[in-house]
Specification:
By secondary structure, this protein is an alpha/beta fold. The protein is built from 8 helices and 7 strands, in the order αβααβββαβααββαα. It has a 5-stranded mixed beta sheet with strand order 2-1-5-7-6, with helices on both faces. This is Type-4 uracil-DNA glycosylase. One of its GO terms (molecular function) is metal ion binding. It comes from Amycolatopsis suaedae.
Length: 213
């Protein structure tokens, strides 16, 4: 039985049978699979070509993404754009999405940007059916997992980014034939003490990903 507009469970209750991206995006707009929808402005679904060879998966939308309804359009997104360009990857040729589709945040003081709050494991798991549906629709060859939350959403809670960064990884069978590669989230580059060094390492990872395509 379909859930009511105010009920929560997991995203599986809201994912349609159709695997067309348009149908998925439309259904995701009404998702109540976890409580994050209550405070977020809107669902931020993935964007990119239907047959993109690479899918980049982040943690969750940020303040700017929540307002605009599109992934990676804030400060971290601008850094990602530059890194993609420097690594020889065209942004409009990859599919961009997040493990969690609603913005989780701490309310900010008046006039200030809302502060991102890491989603819980329960929230990540609740939203996982949307990511699986996107992968099923796009069928990418490579998932580039941006940050620990995205990597653990795909590879399990025991995955450690520090141990496996930049490696080509086998993914669970439910992710089809795609391979995985984990690197840092661009927001981590923005926070790094030596931003130039962190940026160069991030570009190296993306360049290695490009060579796999």
């Amino acid at each position: 039985m379909p859930r009511t507009a105010d009920s929560t469970g997991t995203a599986a209750d809201f994912v349609p049978d159709s695997r067309g991206l348009r149908a998925l995006r439309s259904a995701a707009a009404g998702c109540r699979g976890c409580g994050l929808y209550r405070d977020a402005t809107q669902t931020v679904f993935g964007e990119g070509p239907r047959q993109a060879r690479a899918m980049l998966v982040g943690e969750q939308p940020g303040d700017r993404e929540d307002v605009e309804g599109a992934p990676f359009v804030g400060p971290a997104g601008r850094l990602l754009d530059r890194a993609l360009d420097d690594s020889g990857i065209e942004r409009d040729q990859v599919y961009l999405t997040n493990a969690v589709k609603h913005f989780k945040f701490v309310p900010a003081e008046r006039g200030k940007r809302r502060i991102h709050q890491k989603p819980s494991r329960t929230e990540v798991v609740a939203c996982r059916p949307w990511l699986l549906a996107e992968i099923d629709a796009v069928r990418p060859e490579l998932l580039v997992l941006l940050g620990a939350t995205a990597a653990q959403a795909v590879l399990g809670a025991s995955f450690r980014l520090t141990r496996h960064r930049g490696e080509v990884l086998e993914l669970p069978a439910e992710f089809g034939s795609a391979r995985g590669m984990a690197t840092v989230h661009p927001s981590a580059v923005l926070r790094a003490p030596d931003r130039d060094e962190a940026y160069a390492a991030f570009v190296d990872d993306l360049t290695a990903a490009a060579r796999r395509l």
